[in-house]
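Support request, please re-run this one:
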Amino acid sequence: MTAMPEPETPDRAGRPPSRGPLNALENASSAAILRVLRVTLHTGFAVLLGVALARMLMAGGSLRWLWAAVAVVLAGVYLAGTVLEKRHAEGRTSMDPRRYALLWLGIVTALWSVLLAGSADFAWLAFPLFFLHLHLLPRGGALMAIALMTVAVVASQWAASGAQVPHAAAVVGPLLGAIFSVITGLAYAALYREARNQRLAADELRRTREELARSQHQAGMLAERERLAREIHDTLAQGLSSIVLLGRAAEQSLAGGETATAAAQLGLVQQTAAENLAEARNFVRGLSSPQLEGSTLVDALRRLCASTETGAAAAGLPLRCRVEVDGDPLDLPQPVRVTLLRAAQASLANVREHAGARTAVVTLAFLGAEVTLDIYDDGAGFDPDAAAAAAHHGGGDGGGFGLRSLRERVDALDGSLDVESAPGEGTVVAIRLPLEGGFRG
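Re-run finished. Output below.
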């Protein structure tokens, strides 16, 4: 209820009202200034009241004890208002004293008026009271009250002097004091508003940062899900599909009494399962394909082509696969190697499972500033637009998702992906990846 509101303090749980690191320093500076102003106001009021009371008692008079009693009541009312406000600001009481602020101000002003009528020594209490009116009343009402109080002070000084005409000092002194008080009070109000605006802006910045952190966390989760989806489709899903086909082929071989063939097919099942286990362990750790560890991309593609032939033969498919290399092989960056190998794995898996092709050719070309990979097959072909639409709507057998996954991998390296196919005319998957400055390892 006082002119200087209590600087914000921690709540009952011990949390400061401003939680962000940015507004902590600003609020500390503003709170220190407000605290100094508040302490100065209360100290000034107490000193002026004590001095006026002492001078009145020393002057004597039959009613001095009555005025002393009124002064004590004024001190008690003033102290009660400041203590209640401080307790409320610190969260130690739920009762909000601000609803009684005007009543409190009226009582304090009335008691001061009574004291002023008894002794001109209480005139100087008007100056701290000016700040109370500036803080608790609208600006127009506060200025009107200050003007009336200034007139009362001048009248009291004039009456105490016993002169027929008031001295210039008795008029100029209170007038300058009132003007100084108004200017100081308005400056304080501006400082208080600025501190509050800074706190609100800092709180808004903190909330924005928290929202940004949440959105970045969500984006990271989505990106990780996309990565896992691509890796699962290009490795585990293809491997499990091969295991299913080889298992069916082994079952048919056993039914036909071809135990040697069934044993070979079961051996391929074990080999494929082991490779997929290694792939799973590596992509969970965010590492490259185990097929590229200690090996070049060309060798990895040749092994992939050979295993594709073997898997197709075990499933009774007459597929032949070969690798062709154009240009001098370069030591490619790891992301490029992984992307090209995954593209070949996904493409050859589709050839083996869906194309019904007899020939597949993997062509790796090193062109200095870029590297290209083409996977051609002479199979049944398909409609790329229809496959993309099926993947977009969640349908199809996974081929559409494979193309979308592959396109995302290529786009991440600023490359290009083209798929040329038509029903009955085979398929060509063409990938082109840039190598900055003709990267050579």
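The mean pLDDT is 78. The chain has two domains: 21-214, 298-306+317-441.
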